[in-house]
């Protein structure tokens, strides 16, 4: 028994914070032009949750999650092609090959044709500033797919 417990004092466990990862908050993408970026992502299927042009900020929805993709205008950022090693975010879709066809039909170039991964298929795009977004499915491993 601790000294605090022996005299009837409770032990404050709130100081013992968990370091467990709970999920994603917003993913931040720097962009050079908010209007151009929002237009690109809307064509890619991202609904706009809110947009504040006066501060150069927009949040795009991803599924039923509250967090999303945050677009923020950054001074000095210029259009560029992403290097292969650029960071990427992959988002789950029901069918990545169908998403690739829809992206192409919307005038969004694919970085490559949809490619096979262990769980299904993936297709990637990049905005004008080199931010890479992949769309991946679980057609080969449906037991791992989201169910909502």
Indicate the topology:
Elements: H1 3-6, E1 27-31, H2 34-43, E2 48-52, E3 57-61, E4 68-73, E5 88-92, H3 96-105, E6 115-116, E7 121-126, E8 132-136
Parallel strand pairs: 1-4, 5-8
Antiparallel strand pairs: 2-3, 3-4, 6-7, 7-8
What features would you describe in this structure?
This protein has 148 residues and is of the alpha/beta class. It has 3 helices and 8 strands, in the order αβαββββαβββ. The longest helix has 10 residues.
Helix fraction by DSSP (H/I, runs of at least 4): 10-25%
- Given the helix and strand composition, which structural class is it? alpha/beta
In percent, how much strand structure appears in the residues? Answer: 25-35%
Radius of gyration, in Å, reads 21 Å
Q: Tell how many strands the DSSP assignment holds.
A: 8
Q: State mean pLDDT (0 to 100 scale).
A: 90
Distance between the termini: 47 Å
| Low-confidence residue ranges | none
Number of helices: 3
Summarize the main sheet: 4 strands, mixed
Name the helix and strand elements from N-terminus to C-terminus, one letter apiece. HEHEEEEHEEE
Looking across the biggest beta sheet, what order are the strands in?
A: 1-4-3-2
Q: What overall geometry do the principal axes of the alpha carbons give?
A: globular
């Amino acid at each position: 028994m601790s000294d605090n417990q022996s005299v009837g004092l409770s032990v404050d466990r709130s100081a013992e914070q968990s370091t467990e990862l709970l999920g994603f908050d917003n993913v931040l993408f720097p962009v050079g032009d908010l209007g151009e970026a929002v237009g690109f992502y809307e064509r890619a299927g991202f609904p706009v949750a809110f947009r504040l042009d006066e501060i150069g900020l927009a949040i795009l929805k991803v599924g039923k999650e509250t967090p999303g993709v945050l677009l923020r205008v950054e001074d000095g950022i210029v259009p560029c092609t992403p290097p292969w090693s650029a960071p990427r975010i992959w988002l789950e879709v029901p069918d990545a090959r169908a998403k690739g066809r829809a992206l192409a039909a919307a005038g969004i170039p694919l970085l490559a044709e949809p490619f096979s991964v262990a769980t299904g298929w993936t297709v990637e795009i990049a905005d004008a500033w080199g931010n890479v977004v992949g769309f991946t499915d679980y057609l080969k491993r449906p037991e791992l797919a989201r169910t909502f």
